[in-house]
Amino acid sequence: MAATRIAKPNLEFLRVVNAPQRQRTTFTALAIFALCLTALAQSAPSPSPTASTKQSEDSLKAILKRMDAAAADFHTTQASFEWIQWEKVIGDVVDTQKGKIFFRRSNGRIEMAADIDQPAPEKQVLFADDKVSLYETRINRVTVYGVGKNRAAFESFLVLGFGGSGEDLLKAFDVTYSGKEKIAGIDADRLDLVPKADKVKNTFSKITLWIDPARGISIQQQLFEPSGDYRLAKYSDITINKSIPEGAFKLKTNNKTQTVSQGS
């Protein structure tokens, strides 16, 4: 049986680009990542590409090109999500959160909003104007985290698989193609990614990203920490470049809501 914990959203993606120390919380944002391929001995010469290797390289180029096309045409995306946190120490799920997530391009920048309605009480996360805001309805408080000079790095994580291009993916990660895998009835392309930056690699050691080849977007993501813990993010009911509900990018605060700031 899973251990019972108070569900408390985690701005883990913000910690990667801003925070100097680790804090144990659950996840609320997107992530994407995967397993490294085992390297040959450094003294061994590079082998000639096999037919299988060539096929994988061609498949990778094709899916990255599809992501480039999707990114070029990206305006909005919305989806239902299920975020599952698993811990190695107990070998079980410790937290599950469900809700709706929204992305849009505004003035050339990506904005994100998430409504977490399970478990109750509701929480909201908003990324816009170089800051992340977390609204906890139970205590009627908004906590604002400044992104500042790290916006570009933060946004690159945020849009991986949702408006991010294949070209940008290659800038931040070593990417390999691991074949087809059936996810929610879709023959998804599995991409394995290893962060190039040591700061990120020390936090997110393994990553898996599943891409719907027809739309060039992520439908499932798995993020591993060096400890062996991981988060699995599942997305469904995905709609692209459709009208987003009015107010999706506004926090449902009231005149008694307290606002506090963390970081800059």
Quick take:
The chain has about 260 residues and is α+β, with helices and mostly antiparallel strands. It is built from 5 helices and 12 strands.
Could you explain the architecture of this structure?
The chain has about 260 residues and is of the alpha+beta class. The chain has one domain: Lipoprotein localisation LolA/LolB/LppX (outer membrane lipoprotein receptor (LolB), chain A, Clam), CATH 2.50.20. The chain is about 20% helix and about 40% strand. It has a 12-stranded mixed beta sheet with strand order 7-8-9-10-11-1-2-3-4-5-6-12. The protein starts with 11 loop residues before the first helix and ends with a strand.
Break the fold down into its secondary structure elements and pairings.
Layout: H1 12-17, H2 51-72, E1 76-87, E2 92-106, E3 109-118, E4 123-128, E5 131-136, E6 141-146, H3 151-158, H4 166-172, E7 173-183, E8 186-195, H5 198-201, E9 206-212, E10 217-224, E11 230-240, E12 258-262
Parallel strand pairs: 6-12
Antiparallel strand pairs: 1-2, 1-11, 2-3, 3-4, 4-5, 5-6, 7-8, 8-9, 9-10, 10-11
